[in-house]
Description:
Helix content: 10-25%
Oligomer: single chain
Radius of gyration: 25 Å
Number of strands: 36
Number of helices: 11
CATH topology of the domain at 400-661: Rossmann fold
Strand content: 35-45%
Largest sheet: 8 strands, mixed
CATH architecture of the domain at 400-661: 3-Layer(aba) Sandwich
CATH superfamily of the domain at 400-661: Alpha/Beta hydrolase fold, catalytic domain
Structural class: alpha+beta
Distance between the termini: 37 Å
Amino acid sequence: MVVGKSLVVGLVLAACAGLAPVAALAADPPAAAAPAAAASAPAGPVERISTDVFSQLSFISDPKLSPDGNLIAAKVALDGKTLIGVFDPATGKNKMLNPGKVVELNWFRWAGNDRILISLGQTVKLFGDEYWSTRLLVYDVSTQAQRFIGSKQEGLIGDDVLWVDPEGKTALLSYAQTIFDYPSVSLVDLATNKARELIRERDGVLKWIADDAGVVRAGLQFGGQSWKLLYRAKDGETFRTVVKADYDDDDAFYDVARIFRGSDEGYQKLLNEKTGRYALWRFNFATRKPGEMVFEAPGVDIDDFDTKPDSPDLWAAYYTTDRPRAHWFDAELAKVQEAIDKAVAGAVGDRAATIVSYSRDRNRMLVRLGGSNDPGRYYLFDQTDGVMQLFAQANEQLKPRMLALTRYTSYTTRDGLEVPAYLTLPPNRPAKALPLVIMPHGGPYGVRDDGTYDVEVQFLANRGYAVLQPEYRGSGGYGKTFSEKGEGQWGRAMQDDLDDGMDWLAKQGTIDPKRVCMVGSSYGGYAALWGAVRNPERYRCAASFAGVTDLKRQMKFWDGNASSSKDRTAWRKTIKGEDAKFDLTTVSPLYAVEQLKVPLLLVHGDEDQRVPYQQSKLYADALAKAGKQHEFVTLKGEGHGFSSNANLKLWLDKLDAFLAKNNPAG
């Protein structure tokens, strides 16, 4: 972590040589990127970068400015633990909070200028089954006191914060009083944990929605075959049913919605029937009628949006095309973005400048500079003096000139679907007959890659492999139809999309189809293992980190974490498709051990809270019993990701040796 180096916007090039051209985030990019091979790297020998360098986790991630702009809170990776750090740029002093070893840090946010709310998750056992449980921790910065908020007997979900007052003294928290109740809403004193119940539980209401003044205005009530929207215009009124609809209604979930004080009007993410993509609309919650469409991203769905504090005026809408982008409604922020973009433009690479956090008055901002070939750094920008102060750098040993550029492209599948993809070619090698690693993302549904720096992609490219990251059907952000095409296609058409990406590159002559392996994490790990079983003629090997091997067992785990029977039904339909009786064992690697013909690498953390460690352990035991070639590595104390340099290095070392043996780049 670096603090103290400054640079002036407009003169940045002198202080930050090597920064790349940046497309202004305030301007909309082209609707779609044309298929293209990755750009060739500069001539000269490729420096083999050690796994010691690649495995240096970013000390700081996800930084957030306090409302007054004086402090920065961030996730901190230290000694195999994920901490919350609070930094004072003026003094250089910092404070650290360790939420605990066996919990997962979900999110955090400021509550006023001296208090932080932290969501923690953990798998717990109830009645013999495993469930995902969340709790809310409050951290007082000045005193370093910490305490859990809510009831000791509360239900599984304890981090549903509906509203926080600007001073950070109180918050609206929705939680069930016990595991047998529906959630109620209480106004909680964050200093004492004293709670006053404002909204009593109602049968079937699983989600409450508050406006920007802290008044609970709506509730989503779920029944056997339909859902209802309960609504009221102001505090003191009785909730009335304004909507009753089937679960197939696209607007049922209100996943991105805002209601404003003194009005029935607000904003919501809704489907544009003409384009099939989700856009930002004005919306009347009393009548459930959309108004005008405010913003639609070019070629993709919007992800989220921001409004000004205590105001219905829009600040920005966020979306991802080839990389994460923002459309600024606020003219002042748009000008700031444009000035930063101009300041960092002009050098080799694909670095982009992104405003990731700002103070309440917008005078101070955190700006991230990074790209596919740049791990990135954070700057604190003060508009008063026009100075950007370097706050933190992800990996100081890795420079853009050492790494490979990633290009956004697309290809057509066997059934005519256009699938976006990211392609990274190894530096300084002809784009001909290259060894290939296909690397599908996790999720799988509602998730996508975003073209930013990826340590595994860069590591593989450095070792001489072309890397393809297909945005297979079901990936998030590409519209309703693309998402629905993934339903019921786990292990089937979703897998075809990966194979078709390989064929596309082979037809161009870019890769050698006889030298292909698949590598992935979580669902990507599953896809790698299933690809090796399903199509051994295509893949020389497969490597999985925290991958699913028994879909039936994993489905039971997900069922235990669903908040309602409706959620369980919807998720099962997404996985199985229209055939409710589809046998998940027919697309599970664990039940196809005898069909395996290629070597496997399995790596899994023994404290994984998302895909239980048993998923890999049971498969490894079955492989050993059947005498199949494999290597199984347990990462002690690791969860569903990497919290220590040592564990990331071990994964990269094992992957390096495994690929060198079974699919050498040569």
